[in-house]
Design brief:
Blueprint: E1 2-9, H1 14-37, E2 46-48, E3 51-53, H2 55-71, H3 75-99, H4 119-137, E4 142-149, H5 158-173
Antiparallel strand pairs: 1-4, 2-3
C-alpha cells in the first residue's frame, strides 16, 4: 500500500471567528450611536467615546456589522469581507483626510461631511482598514489527512501471454489419452454383440 497525504481546511477558521466578532462590534457601535443621535433628525450629531457620529454614520456601521455576520459563515466569504473592509475604509480614510483639512485639496468638497467625521474618526477608519487587511491574509487552520492507495496489478504484456499459452500447449501434449482395454476376458465376462449375436473368440480366455 502507498500512502497519499492531502491538506484540507480544518473546521471553523480564525478568519470566520474574527469576522463574526467584528460584525458584532460594528452593530453594537451603531446601535449605541443611534441611542445618542436618534433616528428622526439625520443632521443630528453626537459623540461616542470621542468619535463623531450621526444617524447615517450609525447606519453604515450597522449594515457593515450585519454583512460581517453573514459573511462569517464561510472562510472564503470571511476573507472577502476583509478585503471589502480594507478597500472601503481605506477610501473613507482618504476622504476623511480631505474633509478634515489634513489634505489641502478636497475633490469631493461639494458633498460636504455627510458622516460627520472628525480627526478621531480618521484614525478609527484607518484602523478598520488595517483590520480588514488582516482578515484577508490571516492563514487558514489546516490538517493533514493520510490516505492509503491500493496497489493495482501491473498490466500483462503480449510476451507474458504468449509464454502462458506455450505452457498450456505443452501441458496438453503431455496428457496421456486412455488406452483401450485389450486384455482377454473369460466366457462369463463375454458379452454377445447384439448386431451379430456372436462373441469375439479372440477375447475369450481359455
Amino acid at each position: 500500500m502507498t500512502h497519499r497525504v492531502t491538506v484540507k481546511v480544518a473546521g471553523l477558521q480564525p478568519v470566520q471567528l474574527l469576522s463574526a466578532l467584528a460584525g458584532i462590534a460594528f452593530i453594537v457601535f451603531g446601535v449605541v450611536g443611534f441611542t445618542r443621535t436618534g433616528m428622526g433628525d439625520w443632521a443630528a450629531q453626537s459623540y461616542v467615546l470621542g468619535f463623531s457620529v450621526n444617524p447615517l454614520h450609525n447606519l453604515v456601521f450597522v449594515v457593515v456589522g450585519v454583512l460581517g455576520l453573514l459573511m462569517a459563515l464561510g472562510s472564503g466569504t470571511a476573507r472577502l469581507y476583509g478585503w471589502l473592509l480594507f478597500a472601503g475604509f481605506a477610501a473613507l480614510f482618504v476622504w476623511d483626510l480631505m474633509i478634515t483639512g489634513i489634505l489641502a485639496r478636497n475633490p469631493a468638497e461639494e458633498f460636504g461631511n455627510p458622516l460627520a467625521v472628525n480627526t478621531n474618526d480618521n484614525w478609527l477608519h484607518l484602523g478598520i482598514a488595517l483590520f480588514g487587511l488582516l482578515l484577508a491574509v490571516v492563514p487558514a487552520r489546516r490538517k493533514l489527512i493520510e490516505e492509503e492507495e491500493p496497489v493495482l496489478p501491473e498490466p500483462r504484456t503480449e510476451g507474458y501471454r504468449d509464454e502462458r499459452d506455450g505452457v498450456r500447449a505443452g501441458e496438453a501434449d503431455r496428457t496421456v489419452s486412455p488406452v483401450a482395454n485389450t486384455e482377454p476376458i473369460t466366457k462369463q465376462q463375454a458379452v454377445v454383440d447384439p448386431k451379430t449375436e456372436r462373441v469375439s473368440k479372440d477375447k475369450i480366455k481359455h
